[in-house]
Amino acid sequence: MAHLIYSAILSLDGYIEDKQGGFDWAMPDEEVHTFINDLERSAHTYLYGRRMYETMMVWETDPNLAADSPLTRDFAQIWQAADKIVYSKTLAAAPTRNTQIKRDFNPEAIQHLKKTAQLDILIGGPEIAAHAFRAGLIDECQLFIIPILVGGGKPALPDNLCLELELLEEHRFTNGTVYLRYQTKQGKLT
User: Fold this and answer.
1) Which residues contact 103 (CB under 8 A, 6 or more apart)?
2) Is residue 157 part of a domain?
3) Which residues of 50-67 are buried (b: 16+ CB within 10 A; e: fewer)?
4) pLDDT at position 185, please?
5) 140-146 and 178-184: which strand pairing?
6) Pick from 164, 159, 117: nearest CA to 136
7) What is the pTM of this model?
8) 10 exposed, middle or buried (CB, 10 Å; 0-12, 13-18, 19+)?
9) Tens of pLDDT along 119-154?
10) 186: pLDDT strictly greater than 80
């Protein structure tokens, strides 16, 4: 059975975007990006809300990103090869390959996907992840904490949710970023 993993890069005060919607402060350096690439190899499906998908689709629609370095080319290849499911009521069509658009988040369909998938499933974007957290579907959180306070913006984790977590792994990077990997109580790994 595949695990559903929420992965996010966030500020120390818990935001994925600042008050202006910016996240340039969250761009990973080479060491962090290499680590992220290695993590992403263990998954073959991404679940996104529309906004996160539109942020990430540039890894296929903008060839300049992949051409930037061997590291970004590697990430672009990983991202392009994965299946993507985008939850959106407004997106008419997806400009990327291997992409399905679903109008509604269906917890039963996600549970079925977890049971049938060969590789882990990553969920990106705090709004769609909040639905999965509340439905008890998240098995693991992979959080990259950036050493910056942005003072507000879009929270990385849902409000009004109480959930026990167990620390599985931690890693410090030379730029001050900290990686924390948690399993959820309902997602106890076997």
Assistant:
1) 87, 88, 89
2) yes
3) bbbbeebbebbeeeebbe
4) 83
5) antiparallel
6) 164
7) 0.95
8) buried
9) 999 999 999 999 999 999 999 999 999 999 999 999
10) no
Residue 190's pLDDT band, with cuts at 50, 70 and 90, is: very low
Structure tokens at 50: 């529309």
pLDDT at position 97 is: 97
- Which residues form the domain of 101? 4-184
Residue 188, pLDDT > 80, answer: no
User: What sign does the CA torsion over 33, 35, 37, 39 have?
Assistant: negative
Q: Considering its fold, how many domains does the chain have in total?
A: 1
Give me the CATH number covering residue 56. Answer: 3.40.430.10
Please give the average per-residue pLDDT across 10-34, as a whole number.
97
- Mode of pairing for the β-strands spanning 178-184 and 165-172: antiparallel
The beta-strand segments (E) located in the chain are 4-11, 15-17, 43-49, 83-87, 99-102, 120-124, 140-146, 154-155, 165-172, 178-184
